[in-house]
Amino acid sequence: MPSNIIISRLLDWIAAAFALILTLIGLIAIADPIHGSALFGMPVTAPGSLAWVRLTGVRDIALGLVLFALLGMKQNRIAGILLLICLIIPFVDVTTVYAQTGWSIHILMHGGSIIFMAIVGLGLLRRK
């Protein structure tokens, strides 16, 4: 099997794993918003704040499912474009978490998402 086919399949698996992780993070935020907010990097317990955590969960689930759908339909270039456009999400997450809590491991997590999404998005976009 040529190396470009192996890399292509690996990229498919990585993108699908990312879609699954996003969906699972979203489900956690909806089912258990207190823990979901802690995972995000901005722990909340106030009932009014928990609704906002659930909204971020819906955002993550929607993005994960759209990515799954595009990958399932072999629309890799569109999936790549989607990831590149959605880079704004972890960028805003980084700035929001930093503004609210200062420096934390969560900044690295969200920042890592920026790098990861850019690499996978560009990889999917470049596929033929």
| Poorly predicted spans | none
Percent of residues in β-strands = under 5%
From the helix content, strand content and strand pairing, which structural class follows?
mainly alpha
The number of helical runs is 6
In total, the number of strands is 0
Largest sheet: none
The shape is elongated
Distance between the termini: 17 Å
Gyration radius (Cα, Å) is 16 Å
Binned, the helix content reads: over 70%
What is the H/E string?
Answer: HHHHHH
Mean residue pLDDT? 92
Give a verbal description of the structure.
- By secondary structure, this protein is an all-alpha fold.
- Helix content is 85%, strand content 0%.
- The chain has 6 helices and no strands.
- It is elongated.
- It starts with a helix and ends with a helix.
- The model has no long low-confidence stretch (mean pLDDT 92).
Strand and helix map with partners:
Layout (H helix, E strand, L loop, with lengths): L2 H29 L1 H8 L6 H26 L3 H10 L2 H14 L3 H22 L2
